[in-house]
Amino acid sequence: MSAVLGGKIVFAHHMPGGLIPAALANHAEPFVLEGKHPDLVVLNDRPWNIETPPHLLDDEVTTAETLFVRNNGIAPDSIDLSQWTLTIEGESARQSKTYTLEELKNKFRHYTYQLTLECGGNGRSEFNPPAQGNQWTTGAVGCPEWTGVRLKDVLQDVGIKEDAVYIGYYGRDRHLSNDPDKVVISRGVPMSKALENEALIAWAINGKDLPLMNGYPLRLVFGGWPASTSGKWLDRIVIRNKVHDGPKMEGDSYRVPCSPVAPGSKVPDDQMCIIESMPVKSLITYPKSGARIEEGRQLEVRGHAWAGDLSVEAMQYSIDFGASWQPCTLQAPKNRMAWQHWQAKLNFPQKGYYEVWARATNSEGKMQPMLVPGWNPKGYLNNACHRIAVMVV
After folding, report:
1. pLDDT value at residue 4
2. What CA–CA distance (Å, rounded) separates 341 from 285?
3. DSSP3 helix / strand / coil % (the chain, rounded to 5)
4. Residues 112-150, buried b or exposed e (16+ Cβ, 10 A)?
5. Strands 329-330 and 291-293, how do they pair?
6. I need a labelling partner for 263 at 20 to 30 A (CA). Which of 117, 194, 343, 352 fits?
7. How many CB atoms lie within 10 A of CB 105?
8. What strands lie across the sheet with 48-51, from one edge to the other?
9. Burial 199-235, CB ≥16 within 10 A → b, else e
10. Are residues 106 and 250 in contact, defined by beta-carbon separation less than 8 angstroms?
11. Using the 8-state DSSP alphabet, how is residue 129 labeled?
12. With contact defined as beta carbons under 8 Å apart, do 99 and 85 qualify?
């Protein structure tokens, strides 16, 4: 951020996480992002970080205009599709190979999956002590239909050596400093994840080109894992003989303490573990928090639930602050790692203020916690129950 401002931020350690410096907040350029819903919430515009209010996620398939944006750098501003290529290489690749977009689309079979993408820091705003970074609430998640080719088909076309452990990606986004030699972010996944049927090199959302801020023209999609592994503006993949060591793979980035720690603890690097599958979680998408209904009327409530690499086995709601729980109707996922839709019809015993809480249980029997889970330095993996306010009048 200092590079963007042109000087060091003195007292930066006192600056609230996610705050946009006044010098940038007062910039003449308006907060407008083409192709995105005007009611999305801008957390940061340099780089763009925008979340989706829960009621805008009510569609069973997330639309491109309501899909959240989480960027670390600046999107490429000049894209020539005829010149865009994807190179596969690395010490555990049997050869280096480069494909044009046309070659990728013509050489390999196409697949479409509905896959849940969620930022590892979704829900960060609820941790205490606060973690630095954009203060996501509940809306850094979405589940569109992605179309592309299977990553494993392309990797196998290049050839994978027996010592392969991990893949890493590189994209064409620019570092905030505008230094062309600085890599913004380069994360990856173990080979077991890379070779799953649902791991895609994608060029389309819901049958149309990716929006620029969601990675146009090419990106990775790993459903159920932190969205930071699903590299955007993709132009290079490396097959590694060790855990990938690109920017934001080490330190506190996308890692949590391997064992629970006290809030505010300083955790040594060797006791931090890379986030893999995301935890079980759910969202109430209807009605919008603050709903008012007449006494004696039934209220329909609905939303989605997801569980990383697993599925959701049960969904429940509570209207008495978690003292008792009732079952919801839960649909099966459209495919592995797609979110699942749930709904319930609620009756309220008398007039007054209520909160509706939602709780999902995954296929291994693990439930969402009612309160914020274990603290970690960057505020990742908050899967506490979502709740909305309802007034019966």
Report:
1. 52
2. 10
3. 15, 35, 55
4. ebbbbbbbbbbbbbbbeeebbbbbbbbbbbbbbbbbbbb
5. unpaired
6. 117
7. 13
8. 41-45, 48-51, 69-70
9. bbbbbbbbeeebbbbbbbbbbbbbbbbbbbbbbbbbb
10. no
11. S
12. yes
Pairwise CA distance, residues 145 & 113, whole Å: 5
Residue 380 CA to residue 255 CA, distance in Å, equals 8
Task: Report d(CA 221, CA 333) in Å as an integer.
Answer: 17
How far is the C-alpha of 236 from the C-alpha of 88, rounded, in Å? Answer: 6
Q: Average pLDDT in the 346-353 region?
A: 96
Of how many residues is the chain composed? 393
Decide if 232 contacts 186 (C-beta within 8 A).
no
> Residue 309 corresponds to which amino acid?
D
Residue 386 phi/psi, 5-degree rounding, is: -80, 145
Tokens of 174: 């620019």
Q: List, for residues 237-287, the tens digit of each pLDDT value.
A: 999 999 999 999 999 999 999 999 999 999 999 999 999 999 999 999 999
280 by Cβ neighbours in 10 Å (0-12 / 13-18 / 19+) ranks as buried
Q: Which residues contact 192 (CB under 8 A, 6 or more apart)?
A: none
